[in-house]
Amino acid sequence: MPLENYGALRGTITGHKRARGHHGHYQIHISAGPERAREHFRVALNVRSRRPPSELLFLLDDNFDHPLLDHLVGMRSGFTPIRPVPDSAALDYIRGNLFNPAGMRRIPHDVPGPDNDLNDRLDYWLTRTRADPRGEAWVLGERWGPEPHARDRHFRFHPASGMHNVHMNQGNDPRYQTDDGPWQDGALLLHLPDEGRWVAGFLAFQSQSWHTDDTTGHRIPEAGPPVPPGGWATVYPREHPAPTGAVCVEARAVRIIAALVNPQGSDPGRESITLLNTQPDAVDLGGWTIIDSARRRLPLDGITLGPGATVRVPLDGATVQLSNAGGTLTLLGPDGFRVDGVAYTAGEAQREGYTVVF
Q1: Is 60 exceeded by the pLDDT of residue 321?
Q2: Residue spans of alpha helices (H) in 3-112
Q3: What is the DSSP string of 217-264?
């Protein structure tokens, strides 16, 4: 069954504690609500796995921009339940086009030296957010508590309450698959208004699969092993850059490179999507599909892309549609698995007649 109390917590960072030794969580103290009725929450971020391999997969985007933000900024301070459905504030690492999974890296949580582990990365951005007078955090995951007879064991506030499962929550191995579900993934988002910046952190376990069922969120066995051949690239300190050739999760043989979201005049029949074949061989797109934010589908039958070729796919308005309020586009191969995905914001869609380039 999916998570029981999925939602988003919005509040101010009051404190944080590094994970030490074999302890598997980084702790964040967040306060929310009006001063006279302040609520307190402890966010437990998984930073290591109990089962080998212990390092988590981590991606930090320090200039995050996505239609999701339009849903988050209107939330009240405190916890807000979220329905796990598309085109909402719900997160899905696979279907939501939040980031390119190939950019995720294995990262240890606690090793000697500066700026070379997950503790260091979290410390840096949480401290920076606290230094911004208007800085706030949004945490997506599962709420626990409040526990009226318990005091929080890390930050000592009462009653104990908080958030966990702030990571990918689908494609789990059988031991944890009861937590599986689409559109219920977790993340940490930080807003630094003085810098005009959003920072987003995404976490996943190496044992999780990146091909999951649209209804249950369970891994699809025929999709192959959960970890790509060769494993994941490891994060290195800045003075020792990561080696090239990081293993990709998605083939990305064909990519969505542009979209005319807001054409001049009436939109129906004038919107379009541009695809690029990056391979040295021609690709027959028979059986391939493009899906929009509302899960409307556009078959690509009858299109063949030569090596390095592009194709502009016109939209008739009856299938896939490009909302001027922002949205996502996902390209599925003939097996139904994700090949590429992009997102565009309302701001990018406002320039009438201009093409959005991804």
Answers
A1: yes
A2: 68-72
A3: --B-GGG--SS-TT-PPBP--TTSPPPS-PPPSS--SEEEEEEE-S-S
Identify the three-state secondary structure at position 151: coil
Q: Over the range 37-47, which residues count as b (16 or more CB within 10 Å of their CB) and which as e?
A: eebbbbbbbbb
| In this structure, CATH architecture of domain 254-357 | Sandwich (2.60)
Q: SS3 breakdown of the chain: % helix, strand, coil, rounded to 5? A: 10, 35, 55
Q: Print burial letters for 134-149: b (CB count within 10 Å at least 16), e (below 16).
A: ebbbbbbbbbbeeeee
pLDDT tens string 275-288: 999 999 999 999 99
Torsion angle of the four alpha carbons 70, 74, 80, 82, in this order, in degrees rounded to the nearest 10: -30
Mind listing the pLDDT tens digit for each residue in 281-314? 999 999 999 999 999 999 999 999 999 999 999 9
Q: Name the DSSP letter for residue 304.
A: E
Tokens of 321: 């549609």
Question: In angstroms, rounded to a whole number, what is the distance separating the alpha carbons of residues 279 and 285?
Answer: 13
In angstroms, the CA 356 to CA 358 distance is 7
User: How far is Cα of residue 249 from the mean position of the Cα atoms in its chain?
Assistant: 14
Give the global pTM: 0.88
As a whole number, the mean pLDDT across the chain is 90
Here the tokens at position 260 are 């005319």
pLDDT > 70: percent of the chain? 91
Which amino acid is present at 93? Answer: Y
> Vertex 99, ends 94 and 102: CA angle to 5°?
85
pLDDT of 247 reads: 30
Strands 326-332 and 272-277: unpaired
pLDDT for 245 beyond 80: no
pLDDT tens, 259-271?
999 999 887 789 9
Structure tokens at 91: 């997160």
- The residues spanned by each domain of the chain are 6-223, 254-357
